[in-house]
Amino acid sequence: MKRLITLSSLVMIAALLLAACAPAAAPTAPPPVQVIVTQPPVVQTVVVPQTVVAPQTVVAQQTVVVPATAVPVGTQFKGITVNVLTFTGPQIAEPLQRRAPDFERLTGAKINVIVVPFSDLYQKILTDHAAGTNSYDAYVLSPQWMADFVGAGVLEDLTARINADKDLQWDDVAPFFRNFSANYGGKLYTVPLDGDFEMVYYRKDILTKDGVKPPETWDDYLAIAKQYQGKPLAPGGKPIYGSCISKKRAAQGFQMFWSIVGPFLQSQGTKEGSFFDTTSMKPLVMNAGMARALDIYKESTKYGPPDELNLDVGDTRSLFDTGRCVLSLDWGDIGTLSVDPANAVPDVINNVGSIIDPGTKQVVDPTNRVTGALVNCDSTTCPNAVNGVNHAPYAAFGGWSAAINKDAKPDVKNAAYAFFSYVSQPAQSSVDVTIGRTGFNPYRLSHFANLGPWLHSGMNQAMAQDYLGAIQASLQSPNMILDMRVPQTQYYQQVALDQALAQFLAGEITRDQAMKQINDAWESKTNELGRDKQLAAYQGSLSITK
Amino acid sequence: MNALVAWFDSMATNVFILPAVLVILFLALVPLFLSLYVSLTRLSFGQGSFVLTFVGLDNYAKLLVGIDHVHFLGLWADPSPIGWLVLGLVILAFAWWLIRYVRGGEFAVGGLVGRIVVASVVTVLVWIMVQTIANSGRPGTVGVTLIYVFVDMFFQYMIGLGLAMLCIQHIPGRRFFRVVFLLPMMITPVGVAYTFRMLADTYKGPFYPVWIALGLGGTSWADNAWGARIAVMVGDIWQWTPFMFIVLLAALESQSIEEVEAAVVDGANQWQIFWSITLPSILPVSTTLILIRMIEAFKIIDLPNVLTNGGPGTATESMSLHAYTLWRVLDVGGSAAIAYMLLILVTFSAMSFVNLVRTRAQAVI
Question: What is the pTM of this model?
C-alpha cells in the first residue's frame, strides 16, 4: 500500500513537471493595426562659435529643432524601457498598466509602471532626484507638486514637445487644464491625464419624488441633508444619511473643505486665487467667509454617518453607491462608479444627479479678503455669479498628470513622452474616463462631445447628459479654483490645514482657534521659506505677471 | 619573543571580533549622529541637489515652546481633584523613596543625584499628564504615547500572565491553546490594524451582527477621543499579549516544583503560593520582559495610522506618527527632532527601569 502511494505520488509529480515544462502555445499574432505614431522633434543644443568686434571669441548656443523622421511602427523605441512611477491605485496605475502592452506592441518601448503608496509618492520623487539615483524616468503625479519639483530641477520642460505634437490635440484639452494645470511659470511641464475637480452628487429619484431642487448654495445643501437625515430610504428600509463627505484626517478632508470655503473667498476669477492675498501672501483665513465655511463643514457632520470623521473618500463613495446617502461631495469618480453593477446597488444605478459645486450668495469683501466681512453678491462683488450665486468649482489636486524626469536619457524621454501622449490622445482617454476604476475623469472637450463611450459604460442618456453637463459647467466656469501650488504645498495643506480641520471637527479646538492655528502655521511656513519667494511662486502659479 | 607571542595571544580575542564590532558600531552610531545633525537643520531642494541649512535648536524649540508645542506636549489645564491627588501621591512616594535611600546603608552621592533626576523627570511627566487629561486639557503626542505604553503594558502583562498560568495547568487542549495564543504576534501590525478596523466597523463587516445584538449597530467609536484610543489599545494589547504569554509560560514552567510542593504541605493556599513563591521566582524574567516590551511600545505607529490616521483630531497620534507625518512632507528636521525626543524618553525610561526596578527585583531574589 505504501509502495502504491509512493508510486502514485511520483507519477503525479512527473506529470505536473511535464505540464509545467511544456512549451506554451504560440500566441496568435495581433491583427495588424494602422497606427500613426509621431516621433516628437528632437531638440538639440548646438554650440555656435561667433567672432565679435572685440578680439574675443564668444560661444553662443543655438537651439535647433530637428524635424521628426518617419520610422516603422513597432520598432521606434525598441530596446527602451521607461520606468514610470505613480501611486498604488488601482486608480491611475490601472490604465497605465493596461495601455503599456499596447504601446509596446506599437512602438517597441517597454513601459514599467512602478507603484508606491500615495503618501510616499511626493517625497520619493524628490529624494530620488536629489540623491541622484534617478531610478524613475517619468511620473504620473499631482501638478500641485510642480512648485517644488520645477524649482528642484526634477521636471522636463515639455512645451516644445507638446506644441509640435499634433496627435495630442492640445487644443482639445479644456482651457483650465491647458492654461493653468499643466502650466507653471509660463512653461508646460505635464500632460494632463485626468480632470480633477469636485462636484456634488445627489439621489435624483429621492429629490425628484419630493420636488426638491438640487442644491445651488451650501445653505441649500445643508437644508436638503437635514431634511432627509435618518429617513428610511436606504435599501432594506435602513436610515439614509443626508450627506456623506470624506472627513478623515490625513486623507481628503481638507480638499472637501476647500470646496465649501472656495466660493466665499474667490469671486473675481481663477487668477484672484483663494489661498493667499496675491500682493502680500497673507493667508485668506482670518475672515468671515472662512468662519462661515467652518460652520457649514461642521454642521454637515450632523447629517452624515456617525463615524464620518474616520471615513476617507473610498468609504463615502461606497456608502453613496450602496444607497446610504442622499448627497455627497466628491471628484468625478462617483459618476462612473455609480453605474457599475459591481459597485452600485440597483436603487442608485442611473439615479444619480451631478451638479457644479454649490456656491454662495455672499462673498468676502474682494477689497479686503484677508480679514474682510461678508458682502452680498452683485455685479461687482460677484461678476461670475449665476442666478446671483457665486460658484467656484474647485479643481482639487489638479488632476493626475504625466511628467518626465529631466535627467532621464534623451531616448527614454522621447519614449516616455510618446507613451503619455498616446494615453492622453482622445482615442484612448475618451474610453478611460468612462471607466470608474481608472480614476481618470474628463478633461478634454471631446470627452463631452461624444456620448457613445458614456452610454457604453452603463449610463443612460439622461444621466450621461446630466453628469457631463455638470462637468462642463465646472470646466467652463471662469471662476474655477486652482489648487495651491507653492513650495511646501504639502505642509500648508496636508499638515497645517488638515490638522486644524480634524481638531475642529473633533471638538478639540473652537472655530476661531482653528482659524488662528491655520493662519499662524501658514504664516510661520511662509516666513521660514521667504515671503517674497513664496509670493512669486504663488503669482506664477496663477499666471499673474507683474 | 615569548612575551610578544603571549601578548598577541592575549589580544587575539579582541582582534578577531574587532571587525564585527566596528561594523555594528558604524551601522548603529553613524546614523544616530547623522540624524542628530539632521534634527538641527532644515531641508530644501535646489537644482538636482538638496541643502541642509543649519538652524540650531529651532526644530526642538518649535516642539517645546513654539507653534507645535500644544500638538506635542498637549493643552494644559487645571488638574481635576483626582489629578491633584495622583500628583500628590507621586510626590510623596518619591520623597519617601529618596529619604529611605539617604537613610539606608547603601547611600552614595551619585546614586542620590540619579534618583533625584529620575524623581524630577517622572514628576514632571505626571504633572503634564494630569494637566492634559483634565477635562479642559488635551494630551499631546507625548501624552498619548505614554498612555499607550503604560496602559497596554499593564494589560499585556496581566493577560499574558493569566494565560500562562492557565497553560501550565494539566487541562485538555492546553497544547492547542499554546499555539493559538501565539498567533496574533505572527501577524504584521498593519494586518492587525486592518483586521480591527473591520471588526470595529459597526455598519458592515464580520462583527456587524454582534454589534447589532449588543445594540451598538451604527454607532461610532472613531469620533470620540477616548473611544478611538481604546480601539488602538485593544488592537495593541491583542497583538502583543502573546509575547508576554510565551516568555512568562517558559518562566513558570522553569520554577522549582519542590518549593511549591513544600508550600502545599505547609498548608498554603493558591494565592499565597502565587504571591510568595511563583511571583518572586518569575520576577527577574518579568522585569526583563517588561523592559523589552516597553522599549518597543514607545514606537507604536501602525495601529493609530491605519485605524484612525491619528484622529479624531490628534487624539490617537503617537510620537512616531507625528514624526512620520512631518517626514511625509519632507520636514525631515522636524521629524528627526521628534525622533530624538522619543529616543531621550525611551532611554530615560529604560535606564531608570534597569537601574532602579530591575536591579532591586533581582536583589529580592
Answer: 0.84
